[in-house]
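Table S7 (text form). Paired inputs.
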Amino acid sequence: STQSTGEITGEMKIGALALALATVAHASVPTIPLRNGIRMPAMAAGVGMANDSAAEAMVSAALANGFSSIDTAHDYGNFDGVARALNATSVKRESYFVTTKVPGCGVLTQGLQPPCFSNTMKMAEESIAALGLETVDLLLLHFPPILGWLGGCKVGSKPCVKIQEQWRALEALYEANKTAAIGVSNYCVDCLECILDNATVVPHVNQMQTHLGIPQDNHGVRSLCRAHGIVLEAYSPLAHGKALTSSALATVATAHNKSTAQVALRYVAQLGQVGGGTDLAPLVTSSANPKHLQEDLEVFGGWELSSVEMDTLGAVTTPGCGLEAPGSCCL
C-alpha cells in the first residue's frame, strides 16, 4: 500500500489549528469527511475567470447567502479581490473553508518553472499571504505538467519526476500546518498513480471537471480515488451551461419540480454515492446572483434522485469533456 503507517500518524497529529479551520459549514450544506478527519463543505463558491472586482463580489455574495467554502487559484489572478471580501466579511475565519491551487511545474506555456520543489513552496506561501490568511484549508496542484489531452505522467517519466517534486512541497506545507489538507486537480489515472508511487501523504482531494455527459467513472478516476480514500470534487458541474440541454434532464427536472441546473448539480453530487460510495461528491459552483446562490444550495434541500434517474442521466453522452486545463480530460 502507498498509504504508510507514517501517514496515519502524521494525519492524526494535525493539531488544533488545522482541525479548527475546516470543520464548520452552513447548516443547509452537508460536509464531506476527508481521510484525515477534516470535513469540507459539499459546495464551494468558485471564482475562476473572474477579475478582482468580480471575485470580490462573488465571494461576498456567497458568504452572505449561506456558502461557507471559497475556491480560488493562483492562475485566476484574483487574490486581491478574494482577500478584500474575506477581510470585509463578518463570518469568522473558523467558519469558512478556503481552497487555493498552485500551477503545475514545467509546462512551458504556463505554470511555474523548475526547480519544482522550491518554487512550489514559494508560490504556495505567497498565495496564502496574498489571500490575507495564515493558512488555508485545502491546497491543490492545479494541473500536471502535460499538454492538452496528452498523457505522459507514467512513473519514471520526466513529468512524473516534476509531479513528485511538487507533491513533496505540498507534503512539507501540510506538515507545517500551512494547509489542513492537500490534493490535486485535473489528475487522471496516470498522473495520480505517479503521486501514489512514492507519496508519504496520499492526496485528500482530486478536483476534476465533472458534469452530465462525462462517463460516471471518468475513465477509472473515480474508482482509483475511492480505492485510496481520495475525495473526488467536481468543477464545471454545469459545463458552463452546456450540460442543461438534455431532454432526459428536462424530464427529471419536471418530475422533481426543480430547475434543470438544480438536477444537474444534484446528479453530480450523487455521483459520490455511485458504485458503493457513502458520501455526496463536493462541487464548485460560480455566481454572484443571490437567487442563483440560493437555488444552488437547495440542491441539498431534502430531495434526491432515484437510482433509475441516476442511470438515465448517466447514459447521457453530451456535452463531452471540455479542455479547460492540462489533464482536464481523461482518456
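Next pair, protein 2 of 2.
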Amino acid sequence: AVVSTQSGHYGRGDVDERKCIFKLKGHEGPVKACATSPTGSKIVSGSWDRTVRIWDGSSTNCLWTLQHEALVLGVSFSEESSLITVCCDDKQTKVWDMRSYENVMTLTGHTNSVTCCAQNNFTLATGSFDKTIRLSDMRTGSTLLLLTGHTSAVSAVDISSEGFKLCSGSWDKTVRVWDVHAGTYRTQGPRVMYEHEGCVSSCKFAVDNKKIVSAGYDKTVIIWDALATQKRHQIRAHGSWINDIAMTADGKCLLSCSKDRTIRMWNVENADKMPVVLHNKLSMGYKFQECVDCQRTFKVEKRDLIEVGEEYTKCVYCRMPTRSYHRLSEQDLIVTETDDEVGNIAKSDAPALETMVSA
C-alpha cells in the first residue's frame, strides 16, 4: 500500500505485516497523488510544489524529477508502465514517456483545473472542476467522448479493466456509472447513485468489475453492486473525511485513508457480517435475515413487498432464477436489535475489521 501526506512525505507500507516499510522525502509541498507501476518497480508522486517525482520501488531512490508550471493534482500509470499522465491546475494534462522522461503530449480542452485521471490501455479519462469528463486517445491526443451531467466538480474517475464502463465521483455528492462501450448514456443517461451525504473524493472499480467502492467527505465508504448500481454496504468509522480508497488485487481487502491521520484496512470478503456494517443498518431501522443458500445476511424492511422464490429465506441474489411474490411476516424475521448482538457477531463470525496506522 502507498500513501501520500500533507507534510510533503510519501510512504509505503506492508499490508500483511501492518507496518511502514519506508518513507520517501523530497517534495516541498503537500503530496496530492501517488501511484505504482503495474509491476511495482516504480512509484510516481505528484505535489503542490509543482513537481512529479519518479522513485525506484526497491532502492527508494528518486530517479527523476519532472517540473511543471502548475500545481499537480493527479497522476496515473499506463498498463505498459511506459507512460505517466499528470493532471494539473492549469487546465492541462501532460503525458510523459518513462523511458526518455520527455513530455510527449499535452492534452487540452478542459476549461478549469484537471483534478483526476485514469488510464486503460490507450484510453485516458480526466475529470475537472468544469464538471465534465473527457475520454482521450493517448496515441493521437484526440477527444473521444465528452461526458456531462455532474452539477459540480468531478473529483474522481476510473475505467473498468475491460474498458467498457467508467465511474465518476463528484462534489455534487453522486457516483455515476457510464457505459462508454454501448453508449447507452446518450439516450438513458448514466446510472446515478445518490447515497453519499457529502462530496465524493474517490471511486474505483474492483478488479473483477463486479463492485465499485467510493468514499467521501461524509466519512463513509460505500460498496456498490456495479451491475445493479445499488448500494451493498456502507462503512462509517473514520473520524474525518476520507481522501482516497483502494482495493487489493484479490478483492478481499479495502484500504481507506482519512484526514483523521489513519489508514484503515477492511476485510470486505464477508462484508455482510462486518459489525460496523450491521450496526449502521440497525441504526437506520433495518432488520435482518440470513440466506439459507449463501449464508449472507440481508436486510428486510417490513413495509416492502419483496420478490422471492420458492423459499422466502433467500437473499435477492439467490432468488434471481425464480420469480414469485411473498410478503414476509413478523415471525419470518431473524431480528437483531442491540449493539451487544452485533458485538457477538464480531467475535464469532466476522473477520478482523481494521488496522489503524498513524500517518
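Residues 7-11, 302-311, 322-359 have pLDDT under 50 and may be disordered.
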